[in-house]
Amino acid sequence: MRWRFWQSKQRDSDLEDEIAFDLAADAEERIRSGIPREEAESASRRDFGNVLRLEEDVREVWGWTALDRLGQDLRYGWRTLRNNPLFAAMAVLSLALGIGANTAIYSFMDAVMLRDLPVRHPGELVILNWHAKKFPPVAYSSNGSTYDEPGGGITSPDFPWPAYELFRNHNTLFSALSAFKDAGQLNLVARGQAEVRSIELVSGNFFNCLGIVPVAGRLIADSDNLAGASQVAVLSYNYWRERFAGDLAALGQSLRINNLAFTIIGIAPPGFFGVRPGSAPVIYVPIANRPSLARNYGTEDDTMFVDPHFYWVDIMGRLRPGVTLARAEAELAPQFHQFALASVTKNEERAVLPALWLEEGGSGGDSLRRQYSKPLFVLMTMVAFILAIACANIANLLLARATARRREMAVRLSLGASRLRVLRQLLTESLMLALPGGIIGLAVAVAGIRFLIWLLTGNNPADLHLHVVLDWRILVFTIAVALVTGILFGLAPAIQAMRVDITPALKETRASTPHKRGRRIGLSQFLVVAQIALSLLLVLGSAIFVRTLANLHSVEIGFNQENLLTFSLDTSQAGYKDMALTTLYARMYERFRALPGVRAAAVTDMPLLFDWNSGTGVRLPGAPKCEGDGCPHTSLISVGPTFFETMQIPISLGRPIDSRDADGAPLAAVVNEVFAKRYFPNRNPIGRRFGLGSSKGDLTIVGVAKNARYSSLKREIPPVVYFAYLQNIVNGPPGATFFILRTAGNPLALSETVRKTVHEAAPAVPVTNMMTQVQRIDSTIVQERTFADLCTAFAVFALMIACIGLYGTMAYTVARRTNEIGIRVALGAERRRIIWMVLREVLALAAAGLAVGLICAWSAMSAIKSFVFGMKVADPPTILLAAGILVAALLLAGFAPAARASRIDPLTALRHE
Amino acid sequence: MTDQNSKEKIELLQGTLDMLILRTLQWGPQHGHGIGQAIRQSSADLLKVERGSLYPALHRLEARGLISSEWKSSNLNRRAKYYRLTAAGKEQLITEQSKWKLLVRAIARVMRPARQS
Fold first, then answer.
1. How far apart are CA A373 and CA A535, in angstroms?
2. Spatial distance between the Cα atoms of A315 and A310, rounded to a whole number of angstroms
3. Which of A189, A262, A493, B56 could cross-link with A233 by S-S, CB 3.0 to 4.6 Å?
4. What CA–CA distance (Å, rounded) separates A763 from A189?
5. What backbone torsions phi and psi does residue A66 show, to the nearest 5 degrees?
6. Alpha carbon distance A268, A288 (integer Å)
7. What is d(CA A636, CA A618) in angstroms, rounded to the nearest whole number?
């Protein structure tokens, strides 16, 4: 560098010598022809032309000075930015946040929805689905997920096993067709450690279909899925590292899933997380083991591989080369139609039959996609707005500067700078805003991705696996957007400025410009209006989400949620059965009750407000047998003694479930008020009897409880039957049983004591799902809270950027009008009037922005309808609030320039150029 | 070299300056001023080479390796930068010359009908 600098100096002086020699030689010739020396020399200089220009052109030829020039440009640009540090810093910061937020959100979306699975040729994979107008009656039961389709109707990826066999055996379309099923969180014991992890059931060709090669051992093959299937297991790479420390000795070892022994036969490759982004099973076992791993072994487990009415298995296929998705769908759909039609046993089942459709499977199963796609879309829109507002700021900054620098440009041009050189200078300055913005934006993006994962998945179980990596394409794209904005708005006025004649521009003084109200000022005001409009959208969105959250928090839940610790014991899976189980629960119940710091304890099959729902039909005495929609229906929860006391749900009539309601005693039920009112209107429900679903024997109502929220804050309280868990009316033995402890102090302080107590009494039983009731409720509204938090952050940020934009524009306006304002003051205008004059302009801009923003908001409202609870989207007080906040912020931003205007000293102002 | 004179002079065709410089240097090393004068004189004062074009052209040719330079003392009692044709420059001059001949012939052909009418 130093050498180059030295060389450049040498070259410069050489060039000077060369020119000097030329001038001297020229003058010498003139002198020889008889012209006096002085005259000759000046004639030579005149004749020679612009020396500076020539030097500049020659340096251009040298070429490598581009680097030096860049250095000059950077130094000059830095000085210019430093003249207006606040505005420059804000422009950079706003860009950084715009770029960072966009990169984070898009990277996240890429991981959730767009990225291909890490498998061979993901583009060939397809997922089978069906859809129907409503849940098809031909599916007597199902296990899995159904989703509402946007246009009405439902869709699901779950099929009966015989349908899978049909597709598999009669196909010319797929090179492989595999079946799989999420077994959920099962009790896993490996190397003496009991835990609950997620397990995937897979068909023999699952790995083959995906083209997965094991790290060690072998993967599950077709032979593993034959009748009397071998109990083999493939570990995920991460689990192998975690539990077996990556030791190959794991192969051949045995582990227990739900108390069944499995032999480890292989390790899946690193990076392979199954076929559902967002979940990462730790173990894969043959799907034939599904019945024996069932949580509650039921009748369907006997017949699930032959029953055409039980919809449960997920299917993914690899298309043969040359087969299109459309063709596969066209060939398979009639087959499935025939299948469903053949399974019809009653006439009314014919009306709604499921119809097959195929979906590209390259990016995996889509439960996560369905869950997050809409929120992510809303967030994406918001961050795009932020980027737009930030770019508008850059544009505004450069516009104002380019206008102010018309004279500077003219001076530089007249001194011999080439137009290209000046353009390059401006370009460098744009880059100087965009690049730091991009670099800080990168940091923001990295932090933002972590924050998003934490926000959206923070409350999920341990095996949630989301592989989010920074998306460089998006980062580059957003920086490019910022750059293009900078170039466009920095260069357009500059080019325009340069096209004007140099001389008038040189004569132009600051005092003379204000009278020319040109297009450029209009553009800057347009930008401010657009910023205000976008900010209004974000502020309004945040106000709506914050109010939704507040509405959710103020919902009357019907019990005391404070100081409750909830957790579950997975006893049935650790080998406890029937009597042993009941005894264990009773023993644990007594132990928990006796713990110091525990005021009350209760057993239930699930906590309230857990987003779980179990329900069944109600047989009312004397009512005709009812089938189809609109029949009496109730939600259920099985509870132990002292449940109502522990939860503090008041009993308004009769008595709660207590220790009298044991096995063998008359079946007792406590119903909520909704139930009592709906099914026993205007009568005393105590002592009345009713039946549940297909269970034998009637229950007698022994009490009525006040209404309490059942599964979700957002849903209406359904009719609820509380029945004694010891009487096992509906579900057989309880699977996972929850304990609820009412504590004296912080519930989580007891968690270690609880674990120790359980470990002493039953070492093989894991304690899981330990959470306070408040955490549980919060986790059901995590999306709303995320939205409120993010939206508020975005809105504050948008508001800040817009205020900076407005401040800049107004400050610039005031600076340009210094002269005029000085005259006004000199002529006796009061300070108040001057302030008002400036603020009036602010208000006009704000009003225009609000008007545009409201119109946009109107059309955007339907998009967020589903995120709103307890209010209308178009809620006048909320809109007023948002507009109020915006106007207040804008006035605040406009006040500083207004105050500066009012302090203008007429003498200084008039002397001002 | 007054303003009246310059009216009779014609502008150089784009791209021909390089060729003229190379041609001028064919007879030996010369400094920038001398090259300008030589072109003017050999064109019987019809061509005037602006310094603003000449010096960038010289530096461009040097950068391309067609000419080289050295500082030598001159008759004016001060150092002058003398340019000299390199081997590559000679080759370039030959190509340029034959291209130029072709161009002149082609343009003459195109212009001939105009002269006839």
1. 23
2. 15
3. A262
4. 12
5. -50, -40
6. 20
7. 11
pLDDT digits (tens, 9 = 90+) for A180-233: 988 877 778 888 777 778 889 998 889 988 888 898 888 888 888 766 667 899
- Bridge pairing between strands A232-235 and A260-267: parallel
- Alpha carbons A761 and A834: distance in angstroms, whole number: 81
What is the three-state SS of A262-329?
Answer: EEEEEECCCCCCCCCCEECCCEEEEHHHHHHHCCCCCHHHHHCCCCCCEECEEEEEEECCCCCHHHHH
Conformation bin of residue B96: beta by default, left when phi > 0, alpha when psi is -120 to 50:
alpha
CB contact residues (below 8 A), chain B span 68-87, against chain A: 71, 74, 76, 78-81
Strands A720-724 and A633-639: parallel
pLDDT digits (tens, 9 = 90+) for A574-604: 667 667 777 888 888 999 999 999 999 998 8
Burial degree of A630 (CB within 10 A; 0-12, 13-18, 19+):
exposed
**Alpha helices in A84-124, H assignment, sequence order:** 85-109
Interacting residues of A545 by C-beta distance below 8 A, sequence separation 6+: A784, A787, A788, A791, A792, A867, A868
Q: Is A871 left (phi over 0), alpha (psi -120 to 50) or beta?
A: beta
CA distances from B21 to A319, A772, B15 (A): 70, 90, 11
Let me know: does A826 contact A906? Beta carbons within 8 Å. yes
Q: Tokens 């099923």, residue?
A: A181
Q: Can you tell me the mean pLDDT for A331-353?
A: 86
Cα B12–Cα B17–Cα B19 angle in degrees, nearest 5? 130
* Percent share of chain A, pLDDT over 90: 12
Contacts of A17 in chain B (CB under 8 A): 79, 81
**Would you list the DSSP string of A667-698?**
PEEEEEHHHHHHHSTTS--TT-EEEETT-SS-
Q: How far apart are CA A296 and CA A573, in angstroms?
A: 9
CA A299 to chain centre: 40
H/E stretch holding A455 reads helix A419-457
Which residues in A lie closer than 8 A to residue B34 (C-beta atoms)? 25
CB of B112 within 8 Å of a chain A CB? The answer is no
* Residue reference for tokens 């591989």: A305
Report H helices in A84-196.
Answer: 85-109, 161-169
Residue A56 has pLDDT above 90, yes or no: no
Question: What's the CA gap between A825 and A874, in Å, rounded?
Answer: 46
Interface A–B counts its CB contacts (< 8 A) at 63
Whether residue A459 is predicted with pLDDT greater than 60 in this model: the reply is no
CA distance B95 to chain A (A): 23
Pick A842 or A93 by higher pLDDT. Answer: A842
Secondary structure (DSSP) of A346-367: SGGGGSS--EEEEEE-TT---H
Closest partner CB to A54 (pick from B37, B51, B79): B51
Cα dihedral sign, A258-A259-A263-A269: positive
Residue A511: count of CB within 10 angstroms of its CB: 17
* Whether pLDDT at A65 is above 60: no
User: What's the full length of chain A, in residues?
Assistant: 913
Which residues of B are less than 8 Å from A64 in CB distance?
none
Question: Mean pLDDT of all residues in chain A?
Answer: 80
Q: Which two tokens stand for residue A753?
A: 């004591």
Q: What distance in Å separates residue B30's CA from the closest CA in chain A?
A: 12
Residue A563: what pLDDT?
Answer: 92
CB contact under 8 A, B56 and A18: no
Angle between helices A782-816 and A876-902 (to 10 degrees): 30
Residues β-bridged to residue A585: none
pLDDT at B117 over 50: no
